[in-house]
């Protein structure tokens, strides 16, 4: 089934939440209204809605995709990964959570570091709470992770062994 008139441009990832909401990441324009959407959008059943945008501080602008991965949480929250440092007006580091109303960085309260130190190309949710993060980075939070890590709310980032040599472009959790 078509989602309205669709999007013009590049969609890099799409995710459907458990409640049936459709979220997309990429660089695109709403084909019906001609409105440029800031790298992330939600289909509301009638049209695509801008979520407030994910932006890099330097080197990127509208029309440049900097969102590479989207993953849905069991509670309806959505995680976005890529190469960006702002979610609307919130400072983040390449991975962020959208709860349906607000953006938040992935970090544990009191933790000095947030997000990851490089590009995020893959996200996957595991069971009810943890999110696996893959890409090209050395650190996740304050932990040396080498391209792959697990984020657990309330605990923070955890390394998966010594990590991996080379970038991670996809994660499948079984």
Task: Give a description of the structure.
There is one protein chain. This protein is mainly beta. It has strands at 7-16, 22-30, 36-37, 40-43, 48-50, 54-55, 67-72, 78-82, 86-87, 90-91, 95-98, 103-105, 116-126, 130-140, 143-144, 148-152, 156-159. The strands form four sheets. Strands 1, 2, 3, 4 and 5 form a five-stranded antiparallel β-sheet that branches. Strands 13, 14, 15, 16 and 17 form a five-stranded antiparallel β-sheet that branches. The model has no long low-confidence stretch (mean pLDDT 86).
The shape, in one word, is globular
SSE order, one letter for each helix or strand: EEEEEEEEEEEEEEEEE
Structural class: mainly beta
Number of helical elements? 0
Largest sheet data: 5 strands, antiparallel
Could you provide a short overview of the structure?
The protein is mainly beta and 174 residues long. It has strands at 7-16, 22-30, 36-37, 40-43, 48-50, 54-55, 67-72, 78-82, 86-87, 90-91, 95-98, 103-105, 116-126, 130-140, 143-144, 148-152, 156-159.
Secondary structure elements and pairings:
Elements lengths: L6 E10 L5 E9 L5 E2 L2 E4 L4 E3 L3 E2 L11 E6 L5 E5 L3 E2 L2 E2 L3 E4 L4 E3 L10 E11 L3 E11 L2 E2 L3 E5 L3 E4 L15
Antiparallel strand pairs: 1-2, 2-3, 2-4, 4-5, 6-9, 7-8, 8-11, 9-10, 11-12, 13-14, 14-15, 14-16, 16-17
Main attributes?
five-stranded antiparallel beta sheet, 174 residues, mainly beta, globular
